[in-house]
Amino acid sequence: MKNDVIDFRFGPRLTWTCIGLADDEHKTLVRQDGALLYGQVMDNPLDNRLARTLAIKLTRLGEPLRSEQRTESPESAIVVTTLHYSHATLTLTAFAHADDKGKRTDVVLYRIELDGDLGPIPVELALDVHLLDAQVAQKTWGEPTHAIGRPGVEIFGLESVPQALVVAHPHKLGWPATRHYWTQNAQLALCSQTFSQSTQGALCFPLNHNDTAHLDEVWARRALEQTRAYWAQAKPIRSTLELPAGDMRDMVAACARNIMQARVVHDGEPVYHVGPLFYRGLWVVDGHFLLEAARYMGHDQEVDRALDGVLRRMKPDGSIELLPGHTKETGISLATIARQAELTGNWQGLDARWDVVRRGVHYIQHLRQQANQLPDSAPNKGLMPDAFTDGGANGLRPEYSTPLWSLVGLRYARDAARHLNHQQDAATFSDIYESLLADLNRCAKRDMRTLPDGAPYLPIVMPDGSPWMYLSHDTGQPPMPWEAMSPLSGAWALCHAIYPGQVFEVDDPLVTALLGVLERFDNAQGIPTQAGWLSWRASWTYFSSFAAHVWLFADRADKAVDYMHAFANHAAPTRVWREEQSLLDCPIEQWVGDMPHNWASAEFIRLARHLVVFERGSELRLLEGQARCWPALDQPWRIERTPTRFGPVSINIAPQSQGKTNITIERQANGADPQAVTLRLPEGACDVMLNGRPLPLNGGRINLPTSPARVTVSLEVHHA
Question: I need a surface site. Which of 6, 118, 252, 452 has the fewest CB within 10 A?
Fold first, then answer.
């Protein structure tokens, strides 16, 4: 599917957008209808329910006919929701505000406009309250509509008359008044008046204070200007990552903001959380990619400190395992610390932690020993013990995700040992790596299966076990389609082993087979479907980035660019993603995971960076996605000192007159020199010069110096 327009056509029907500030303790969400969402109640791991929902609506006009939602800009978390009723429009502008003393208040400015000349009509602005963890007192019939609460008691709201402001405490709903009855659901009248034109006001929701005496509509509108100024100077991207003006730049800017909003400071250390509610935490696999994206964003000090937090979780036996049965996390952690050393060039820091690497490798070897002791009937004998796969398969099973990520960690550890001249460790790590790879290939050859059309694929959960996604649900009967694993269940780990793991060569049968399966499953909405926990008529949105990187590794930047645009089109118009969601033609509403999901945000940033600067083994490839991702070379843009294992790379695009462009590239020493540096040329490029000398083309690429240098490529583009 080739379509370079980002219009959010595949976005989820149910959306949540965070309005919190950077590193904000309070992660208030705004639903697609403008409702504010607070808290979470989890009676069990599968029971994802919100504690408090406060919906702002007009009554007496029926339900809204349609709605739109956006942020004021990609860089800001000011959410504007417009609800269109039959004869009126309600616009809600929601944002977070913090004063210089840290007092946090959520604010919603509202504006009610009538359609046409209807004359005076009564319109009521109401707050629909739904609570799971408390009760609210609702007024008995006949009380004045403006008397929501009484001063001097623990009240729900303070209201001015005529209506201009409501102050509500979302965490202190309910008050002890005798003339009210208690309910978990209530509709509270906020503004009931007759008007013929428009009216506006504000609702304030103090989150950590009771200082409300000074809150009025003037304060609320001043707070909006202060929040606008806050986001204008927040700069979540501290490095120079200036893509051309347009959709892609806007998406990257919003992704960086999402990551900063989800991050928290715990015991003085920054923690890059995956989501604002259900995924408030840093998981090891998510963290590998979040920290890489944060490094690309220029968050060097924060990433270094966050990395320390991951390493402190190592257990005495050398394992790092936060999710039970997720034994692959040790290999992921090894890859993470080695990758961060590559990007920073701080090999001394890694050397100082070298005992962590040795202990982690020792634990992987311990897992191998456990696998050797399995009975001969076990399909994973000699490979790895049963483990939790994730990504569409739960329970402890014989599976491939753990050996795949262990191979990635071992490869990073081996290469780091060679770089640090730890020769004995390098030899030991290499032996363990080669032995595990041989056993994986042996088992994979045995376990390959075929799709109905004969295409081969490797099931990540070993065949002949339970076909059910959840082992605990297995009734002994064949599962329904939405209960069964698919050929892509767990394939996230194989994608990662191919890239960034680079465990397999591009012509390896496992790579070829995976590309074939991806292409068979990406026709519905432009990205692969059935790859996660929703294995029926649904998509795991940011799996598209995992798959796009495999295509990029396989020298198919065109497919990677296609996936990138389709990935963006699965976001909401506020540029946030749900983890998994139904396809548009699915007859039921399915969703899994938090929103905004910031592994998705990290993946978009990573993919955008890698389509410009891509480390492929010992090669450095530049502008691989240039031909279609950013075709307009008549716009200036630049990237400065983006980190790679070959040292920082800078690219500056400077349009000249008459369709000519100069591309200045500089690489600074901070690592090993690549064996090749290539620059992908856009379609129609001609008259290519390197530092003023004509240069022959090499299959659409040109070769650049492999040693650190500053060069200028000039070219002209003739469009067909």
Answer: 452
